[in-house]
Write a structure and sequence with these properties.
The chain is of the alpha/beta class. The chain has eleven helices and four strands, in the order H-E-H-E-H-E-H-H-E-H-H-H-H-H-H. Helix 1 packs across helix 7.
Length: 254
Amino acid sequence: MLKKWDVEKTTNEIIEFIRNYYKKNNIKGAVIGISGGKDSGVVAGLFTKALGAENVIGIWMPCHSKEEDKKNAQKVADTFGFNLIDYDLTNTYDNFVKEIKKNNKVTEEDLDDSNINIKPRLRTMTLYYHAAMFTRLNKGLYIVPGTSNKCELYVGYFTKGGDSVSDIQVLADLTVDEVISVGEYIGVPHEVVRKTPDDGLSGKTDEEKLGVKYSDIAKVINNEEVDPLVKEKIEKLHNRNLHKFNTPTYKKGE
């Protein structure tokens, strides 16, 4: 956490940031993927307060998902009053994997990492499809906000071509604890904002997958004291995933 963390000030600044960007660029609304977790819940709450619930559309995109996540997604929508669309991607995902297996000699184990990344990519495609559709239907531009926080971004915990793609970011400079503080301040349901972070895809918590705690990632980001072995692991994750931020590009004469 920052030493002088002012949740009210930061929340108001984010809301003003959204309003100013929308006014400057003549944007009408937002299409947000609602997972039932804290990050998407906080983003939805902030955009609803900035734009009004009538200009926010949430999309719940289950794909072999847990019933608890669906209930939490609906709680977020009910709390902030925006419309929540249920767009089930399970059959789309299953058919995709079926075709992969048919055309390649692979085992389930061979597909594990690839399969996990299919889901966020399908979800991103779905969000942008709906953004284009509502832009036409409502005669005004709709864009897709990102939901990644600073800790996730630092260690590259996102999918290239999936949740890495967005039109505006409002949590990217907030650590997990700061996101929770904003969520509690704006009234995100307790069971959502305090839910143990997981990707809703692999059956593991974020920290189990990463092998480090978000609190320790925040300490590294803020140059606070942390166990040297833990710091080394976090920095390895950071360096290993730098390719997700930069695309090597050939330039003539260089």
